[in-house]
Design brief:
mainly alpha
Length: about 280
């Protein structure tokens, strides 16, 4: 009877870091409709409160800033929603990226990992990644586990090992980046769309003003003319303000992400250099 041979068991691949993208970040499809309802409620019941007007029934003579903003018309609740979206997702990204940075100083972490590797203390380097946590710590841990595996690998040449190590860093980074960049497109979009929505409100306000000028054939209705101009300017102000905040926050978060990816690249380069020198 012929004896069956079993294939040698494959070496287990390093366990991937648990990407925070699985659980991190707000669901825009749920949050945005809720904020739209909230924006409409703010416009109708807070800004449109009768106490903000001299004539609570008609609401044509605002006596404070809240009433003036309400007079901007039906575009105002949309712009309020845009502003709320910018605020909510900015806070959410700030918290998420704060966690992604880890628990310690990144420069000190990278320097410590490098010194531990130079000393050949791979186990302590991995423990340091567990203490650091965050995106950089996760990627560094995966790379160090691959580093440890490649040390005892005899079937691959040196350049192949270096390529495998680089690929491991890139794959681990690609698992973390979606979590870092999630919802940033919303801020980027609102940076331009808020201005366009405001422009729509401005046009509607100017149309009302021109109607006031053209009615009656004589002197224009000063109240209607002023109301139309006010509507145009209120929408312009809200839109420009929202757009400015969205652009500032988007650039801030992208620069933060660039800083994290730079640290990951720095660790990856250090691993390859040390591996090349020691193996």
């Amino acid at each position: 009877m012929e004896k069956k041979t079993t294939a040698p068991a494959a070496k287990p691949a390093p366990k991937k870091a648990a990407s925070s993208s699985k659980s991190g970040g707000l669901n825009a499809g749920i949050v945005i409709p809720i904020l739209l309802v909230l924006g409409v409620c703010i416009w109708m019941f807070f800004l449109g409160d009768g106490a903000n007007f001299d004539d609570p029934e008609v609401k044509h003579h605002p006596k404070n800033m809240l009433g003036i903003v309400y007079s901007g018309g039906v575009i105002v609740p949309i712009l309020i929603t845009c502003f709320l979206i910018v605020v909510v997702f900015s806070v959410e990204r700030f918290i998420t990226l704060g966690k992604a940075s880890g628990k310690g100083n990144l420069d000190a972490f990278v320097s410590k990992i490098r010194s531990l590797l130079n000393a050949g203390n791979l186990a302590d380097a991995i423990k340091e990644c567990d203490r650091q946590q965050g995106t950089v710590g996760n990627v560094a841990k995966i790379a160090l586990m691959k580093y440890n595996q490649l040390i005892s690998e005899t079937e691959l040449k040196k350049d192949q090992k270096l390529a495998a190590l680089q690929k491991e860093v890139e794959e681990a980074t690609s698992l973390e980046l979606p979590m870092l960049e999630k919802n940033l497109t919303i801020l980027s979009t609102l940076g331009s769309v808020a201005t366009l929505i405001a422009l729509l409100g401005t046009v509607l306000g100017m149309i009302r003003s021109f109607f006031a000028i053209g009615e009656g054939g004589g002197a224009p209705d000063a109240a209607e003319l002023a109301r139309g101009i006010a509507e145009a300017l209120i929408n312009t102000g809200l839109g420009i303000g929202t757009s400015a905040v969205a652009i500032i926050m988007y650039n801030f978060f992208t620069s933060k992400i660039d800083g994290l990816t730079f640290k990951i690249d720095e660790i990856g380069m250090s691993l390859q250099q040390i591996f090349s020198a020691k193996n």
